[in-house]
Amino acid sequence: GHVTLTLNAYSYCEEKNDDVYYTLSHSYNIEGKVTHLNREIQNAVVIAASINENKVGRLYKTKTDENGRFSFSRFPESEYILYAIPDSTETKGVPTYYANNNSWEDAYKIYLKADIYDIDINLTSRVDNFIDGKGSISGMFKYPDFNFNDSTFYCSAWFEQDTNLIYCDDGLSNIVVSLFDINKNKIINYRITDNEGRFYFD
Predict the structure, then answer these.
(1) 8 Å CB contact between 100 and 71
(2) Three-state SS letters, the chain
(3) Number of C-beta neighbours around residue 125 at 10 A
(4) Mind listing the pLDDT tens digit for each residue in 6-19?
(5) For a Cys staple, 31 with which of 19, 49, 71, 90, CB 3.0–4.6 Å?
(6) Is the pTM of this model over 0.70?
């Protein structure tokens, strides 16, 4: 629906008025829980990405509480993809899309047109029989050259306690880099780019 707000201004000389039109839209809530091997995972970052014509729109994030629960409020009607990123000090689970997939292409799109209270994101596990070698992989996620609108989303402390760090100082921070097995089925390990946008596997 719509509503019209009429503004009136008075002075000794004249009277002015103007109409402001607002569109009223429905908003909805999403609540759920993050677990790994039937254990609630606290301090995980949960990202909700709105999807429009298979393109990512606005990004939202929150964190799980001590019971592994998370919530988003006042979302407009749209499709959304949910992604949980655990704190590596809390679990050996790996970043996982709802519903329990490791790749963006396989993520389940939720069409939100009512409140949802039972989203369960079960983190998948790392490859447990991986043989360690002597090699290493390192790199940097470059800061986008184009007009980047999500700097406030990425360029802050997600897990670290040292708030004096300057994020996105050289590259883009808080990007998940996953190392998959040869079949691209399971994650061997993952890293999150640091305050300078760098990652390192050893």
Answers:
(1) no
(2) CEEEEEEEEECCCCEEEEEEEEECCCEEEEEEEEEECCEECCCCEEEEEEEECCEEEEEEEEECCCCCEEEEEEEECEEEEEEEECCCCCCCECCEECCCECCHHHCCCEEECCCEEEEEEECCECCCCCCCCCCCEEEECECCCCCCCCHHHHCCCCCCCCCCCCCCCCECCCCEEEEECCCCCCEEEEEECCCCCEEEEC
(3) 15
(4) 777 776 677 777 77
(5) 71
(6) yes
Instruction: Tokens for 24, please give them.
Output: 């009223």
For the chain, the first-to-last Cα distance in angstroms comes to 57
List, for residues 19-47, the tens digit of each pLDDT value.
Answer: 776 555 688 999 999 999 999 999 999 99
Contacts of 187 (CB under 8 A, 6+ apart): 94, 95, 102, 124, 126, 127, 178, 179, 180, 181
Distance between CA 111 and CA 97 in Å, rounded? 15
What are the tens digits of pLDDT across the range 107-163? Answer: 999 999 999 999 999 999 988 777 778 889 999 999 887 777 788 899 989 987 667
pLDDT band at 1 (very low <50, low <70, confident <90, very high): low
Convert the pLDDT of each residue in 149-173 to its tens digit: 788 899 989 987 667 888 988 899 9
One-letter amino acid at 153 equals: F
Structure token pair of residue 174: 């808080």
